Amino acid sequence: MMSSSFKVIGLTALVSAIVTGGLVEVVGRYLRNNGNRSADEDTTALQKKENLFGGEYDEDLIREQLARNYVFLGEEGVNKLRKDTFIVVVGVGGVGSWVTTMMVRSGISKIRIIDFDQVTLSSLNRHAVATLSDVGVSKVLTLKKHLLKVAPWCEIETINELWNLETSERLLEGSPTFVVDCIDNIDTKVDLLEYCHKKKINVISSMGAGCKSDPTTVNIGDISNTGEDPLARSVRRRLKKRGIASGITVVFSAEKPDPRKASLLPLPEDEYMKGNVDELTPLRDFRVRILPVLGPMPGIFGLTITSYLLTYLTGYPLEPIEGVTKNRAKTYEGILHTLAAQQSRLGGQEQRVPLSLNDVVYVVDEIFRAKSAISSYSTRLALSRWDMAKEISPQNLVLMTREEQLQHEQRVLSGRETPEDVYPPEVLQRVQNRFEEERYYARFR
Length: 445
Description:
Elements: H1 4-9, H2 11-19, H3 23-34, H4 39-48, H5 59-65, H6 67-83, E1 87-90, H7 94-105, E2 110-114, H8 139-147, E3 155-159, H9 168-171, E4 178-181, H10 186-199, E5 203-206, E6 218-222, H11 230-241, E7 249-253, E8 265-266, H12 269-274, E9 289-290, H13 296-314, H14 329-345, H15 357-367, E10 381-385, E11 397-401, H16 402-413, H17 419-422, H18 425-441
Parallel strand pairs: 1-2, 1-4, 2-3, 4-5, 5-7
Antiparallel strand pairs: 6-7, 8-9, 10-11
Helix pairs in contact: 6-13, 7-13, 10-11, 14-15
């Protein structure tokens, strides 16, 4: 139900104000009026909600509602979901709302959802169930309200607060079967993944759905094998600094960046001038950014997570998650081939190089962030020896474009010039920085 303050603003006036540029002022005023709606009032209303059929929900009706799941996963599988599975979803925005929705629709009967935020107007392009009347209501209560209409037999526990290390034991108590990480703040995300890893709690994490548009590049894999996903790369590097190199399952997109595609942008300067932008963020220190999100992509991430969990938990046949992801294997094989070809050209040596495909992934993605160290281009990439006097190893390989590889080969490896003769100081420093990082990360391989 819309609050009286929303009626005062009026939907037409609200849209008009946003169109004419009053985003900060209007949304800030709207959240001040609606962000503190009493959770007790909403919870009481939910508790008073009568079952569609009155009293207990009949088991025959539940089985009929889940009939397709029983046929697909079998009696034992669905019973495990219904009776022996407890899922905790941390973050129920675009991705987490779809995870929760499809888990409830698929028969998982015990779920705890954790989120501190409220539904906003901009949430409506990607949220699984929220409507205009939910704007200003906490995300966890919005989900519970809608999903109890779908499966009133489910136990949906809502916690309307921020997960952090101080609250971790309390919020994750009860021995969850799986924790689903859908947090969009990187520091909190890394804290949660480290906590679950060290406590041996099963966890699956969503990487970045923002700025992505190609559903065919969405993958499930170990955090150590992610590629092209900036959030995954940052998470991976931070986890390695905490001694965690692998063992965390993630959903990510291997879609390649392109200057013609959407990218993360700061809030326009004119919006800062109109008012206090802190009113646009629920917590202090959460950066105010415009994150371009194509509506279906968070849903695809969430549905991928849920499909994986449903099959994993019920023992349905799955391909093992290991090695290089399917969409990137050919790229890495091509890079390895160009290095072998270079070695052959440099003296007729055997084309086989002392690197595995996973070594190539490590050097390309982990050390050089899938960008040329010379030009920062991310297409037509190749690995090249840096110093002809040294053997091929991660300490003597530099990522560059194929054209740059040939130039480096002609001028440095086959010629008489040194890298200092060929490259400006900033490139030389960048390469040295990457080598220093590789020495650090090599301890965790």
